[in-house]
UniProtKB/TrEMBL annotation:
It comes from the Eukaryota. Residues 54-119 form the PARP catalytic domain. InterPro entries: Poly(ADP-ribose)pol_cat_dom. It holds the Pfam family PARP. The lineage of its organism: Eukaryota, Fungi, Dikarya, Basidiomycota, Agaricomycotina. GO terms for molecular function: NAD+ poly-ADP-ribosyltransferase activity. This is PARP catalytic domain-containing protein.
Amino acid sequence: GNQRRRFHGTKRACSLGDGGSTALCSFKECSLCGIIKTSFKVSVAGLSNPWHRKPGRFGRGIYTSATSSKANDYSKNLPSVRTGCKAMLLTKVIAGKGDKLTKSEHMRKGPSPGYDSVHRLLSWGTLNYDELVVYKDCAAIPAYLIIYESP
């Protein structure tokens, strides 16, 4: 229960979505095609991002947001991608009972006992976007690919 739709930004190393292209690539660096092919994998979350080499604010998990501009911050094209477009996913996330946190816990391995996910609240500190983090591969699935122009 408690399914939610949330945005997820990731990196793209191919032209999926550009000009109507529907071909998934086989580039190891393309997190976008990897997620679409095999769904989310907590074990590889954040590992291949050159700008994000450590676990996230709440440990290694699948990070999503109700705010598309938050996902846009993580939607990156590798230098080999020559386009004015970016890509993000709209996911279906099973949030279950949310553990609401108010401070960073980078070494966290999952929600507190009795909870299914972690929620970061909007009003906390200097961060101004909500986040929903799940720690099980099956708790999030990619549902829609969004291609959009980005300056």
